[in-house]
Design brief:
The protein has one domain: Vaccinia Virus protein VP39 (Rossmann fold). It is built from 10 helices and 11 strands. Bound molecules: S-adenosylmethionine.
Length: 282
Amino acid sequence: MIRVAYDPTLFQGTATYYTSGRPPYSRDLVPTLAAEGRLDGSGRLLDVGCGPGILSLALANHFEEVIGLDPDREMLAEGARRAAQSGLENIQWAQGRAEEISTLDLGMFRMVTFGQSFHWTDRERVAEMVYDRLESGGVLAIISHAHEGRPQPEGPGYPPIPHEAIRALIERYLGPRRRAGQGGFAQPTDPHEDLLARTRFGVSRRVFCAGRDDIVQDIDAVLANYFSMSFAAPPLFGDQRARFEEDVRAALTAYSPSGLFWDWPGDTQIVLAGKTGQGKRS
Ligand SMILES: C[S@@+](CC[C@H](N)C(=O)[O-])C[C@H]1O[C@@H](n2cnc3c(N)ncnc32)[C@H](O)[C@@H]1O
């Protein structure tokens, strides 16, 4: 188990930076999920660790009802605000942790998504809970950006975001241990497929959708990207925040006098597992 107790300060202060800073998923993600889940506008989606509703909103038109589940109130408020702005009325927002799926009265789902959120959970226990909440034939989809082993495209001609330099600055301010809320965080090392093999899902497979190679961000957006991360959440910097921001702006200007950067998030990876009704345990 990676995290035992949920720390409510994990993403504190990040929600409003999320949509302006985080690079979007592949344009092929939604069509791929629609095809994999044979989505036809009926059924229900549970989007776990929904944050400001990135997947909830993107998939809303493919379901009758969507539940965005997240423990962070600010994220849910941002999701509700964005849904209202887009005129989407079939999304409900529920406050809770993935580890509470079995005790929350959420009903049954055709698809359950985790967008960059599965690694925050007690994965094996949560996968079993998800299995129970999926209709027969339903699909679990674990989505993230993937760089490793993926070909890097040409890009639109601006310098890439100097991630190493920014991470070095973060380390100078916050220390070498990757911060997360009140504590630290260690990324799970075993692939989701290995973990799912130990659950009733059994078999899973990995699909890649081509990442967007044309994302150009200005300095504000690069800063917003980092302030949307748990390891660089604004409250972690305390009264050093303005100085940190100044240092990042100076470093970015030195890297790109135009103030523009190429943001290559990598391809979008989906780990897919289906509920066949023939799970190992019942
Ligand atoms: C990186 S954001 C992902 C947001 C969105 N799903 C996306 O695709 O961009 C991770 C989200 O996971 C949520 N989270 C953290 N621990 C969680 C847990 N134990 N159960 C459910 N969600 C959790 C955080 O509050 C945060 O909103």
